[in-house]
Amino acid sequence: MNAADESERLPHSVGGLLGFALSAWFANAPLYIALAIGVFAAYSVVEYLVPSARPQTPLGDFKLYVLLYTGLFADSLVVAAVAIGVAARAAGAPASPATLAGAAVERWLPVIAVTFLAQTVALLTSPLAGFTQVTGMPRGVLYVTAPLTWILWGILTLTGPFVALGANRGLFSVIIGFGRAFAVSLDRRNVLRLCILGAVAVLPIVLQTALQNFLVQRHVRHAIFWGNEPVDAITIGPLTAVATAFALDFARRAGLLEKPQPPASG
Q1: Measured between alpha carbons, how far is 179 from 90 in angstroms, rounded to an integer?
Q2: What is the DSSP letter of 93?
Q3: 3 state SS of 55
Q4: Model-level pTM?
Q5: CA pair distance 71, 62, nearest whole angstrom
Q6: Per-residue model confidence as pLDDT tens digits over 4-42
Q7: Rama region for 247: left / alpha / beta (φ>0; ψ in -120 to 50; rest)
Q8: Residue 7: count of CB within 10 angstroms of its CB
Q9: How far apart, in whole angstroms, are the C-alpha atoms of residue 95 and residue 88?
Q10: Residue among 38, 46, 48 nearest 76 (CA)
Q11: How far is CA 18 from CA 22, 28, 80, 99, 189, in A?
């Protein structure tokens, strides 16, 4: 496959990229839904094993971190499978579910590593995102830091697809993929589209925050679980599809289209 062929298959408009991403997800929906069920099952096991805890308490915070990093392993397999599927469709060589699943497992470890790194950065910057009031921080400061944080999170959604699609399957690919995500995103030709991706990336977090607060106010049992994990399981696939389409588009616009190639099926 050459750059010209992929450029013709990958839409150039933002709306076209969104439509392409969702159609690529639907093309392998049974596989992705099965993986999403696996994500929810992983969360459910943790919910069963870790005692119930109220949000915004030490035990509640501990449980939330356990849920986050447990879901990281399951989410990473979804990210790898969806990214490979979207890239294969962009290359005009759609892969079978078995091929996608096998390729995703091969790339699972490096995607776990880069997802861990991206999630850690997201957690460290979450106080600046504007979803919670930070003691001692003027609200006016959040009006500046929140949009910048959302843009950062948009870049972080690209790291998994870049690693999944990289030719190098070793752990060094984590550094390459992480750096490439920032390099193409911050290219001046991609900044506006990066802002759009950031807005898309933050939507599940907004939904999780609103749903958890709603459940907590009504004293629903397992509010942390029901407020966060179903949303993550449902949205991780479509969000990854969108991120992959934007990653390919960013690479094309930055003149690096041949870098994030879909790997050959095994």
Answers
A1: 23
A2: -
A3: coil
A4: 0.87
A5: 14
A6: 454 458 999 999 999 999 999 999 999 999 999 999 998
A7: alpha
A8: 14
A9: 7
A10: 38
A11: 6, 16, 19, 24, 18
